[in-house]
Design a protein that fits this description.
about 0% strand; rod-shaped; coiled coil; Helix Hairpins; mainly alpha
């Protein structure tokens, strides 16, 4: 409970392994030399239980008390088994929650990275749009100048139609203009192709971002469900710990109550 409160209030992760003083007695490692003592004690208790099961005092009242004691001992053992099972289940659920939280953090980091990539791709697209607009303006200006030059050339041709040298020079200028125009046209086509490719990349990034966000939402729902299951297990565990710790012989739990607890726990699973 202390580690759970630390996680809720201070966001401190619980240790991967509990120290021995926080483990139930049945889970603690046996110190050197204590195994034989524990075994002999268990055998002794078993022999006593076996002896008690055949012991009859001849007094009905005493026999009823002995039966009650045996029933309470059996119920205590049942409680202890249930307590160990609940502790094991809680350990598994806590591990699942930690794994899902790590996966959720990874997905959130992926979404942030995709957002950055999306912004960078958008900036690149904006730059390419500006470059294309600039090239379009330059191309339009060049086309206009070329048209003006063609008009001038035609005018000059009409004036000095018999001058071969001037005609060749004009042809050379015209070819240069055509070459420059073709170069600009090729550059525009390359930029248009690059722009289309970057747009496809941006669309893929947007699809990946949407998939990551959907998965993160599903993972968050699973984490919420597991947290509710953990709260349910903690509540049942506290009740069983109180019963075992207090040794309340008057507090008897029927098999129907235990079955309802198991059914509710399995339903939450």
């Amino acid at each position: 409970m202390h580690f759970v409160e630390q996680k809720k209030q201070q966001n401190i992760e619980p240790p991967a392994e509990l120290p021995p003083d926080l483990l139930p007695p049945s889970f603690r490692p046996n110190p050197a030399g204590m195994t034989d003592i524990s075994t002999s004690t268990t055998c002794h208790e078993t022999s006593l239980s076996a002896a008690d099961s055949h012991l009859e005092s001849g007094n009905k009242k005493i026999d009823e008390i002995l039966d009650d004691i045996r029933n309470i001992q059996q119920e205590k053992r049942t409680f202890e088994q249930q307590l160990m099972q609940l502790e094991a289940d809680m350990t598994i659920k806590n591990s699942e929650i930690r794994n899902l939280e790590v996966e959720l953090n990874t997905l959130q980091a992926t979404v942030i990275q995709l957002e950055r990539q999306k912004g960078e791709a958008q900036r690149r697209l904006d730059d390419l749009d500006e470059q294309r607009n600039s090239l379009n303006d330059a191309l339009n200006e060049l086309v206009k100048r070329n048209e003006d030059d063609l008009q001038n050339i035609n005018h000059l041709k009409s004036i000095i139609d018999n001058s071969d040298q001037v005609a060749k020079e004009n042809e050379r200028i015209l070819n240069e203009k055509r070459t420059l125009l073709q170069t600009l046209t090729d550059e525009e086509m390359k930029l248009e192709s690059k722009l289309q490719n970057d747009r496809r990349i941006l669309q893929n990034l947007q699809h990946e971002q949407q998939d990551s966000e959907d998965f993160a939402l599903k993972a968050d729902d699973i984490v919420q469900q597991l947290r509710k299951q953990r709260e349910f297990l903690m509540e049942k565990l506290e009740k069983l710990e109180q019963v075992v710790a207090n040794g309340d012989q008057n507090y008897l739990v029927s098999n129907q109550d235990l079955m309802s607890m198991d059914d509710e726990f399995n339903l939450n699973k």
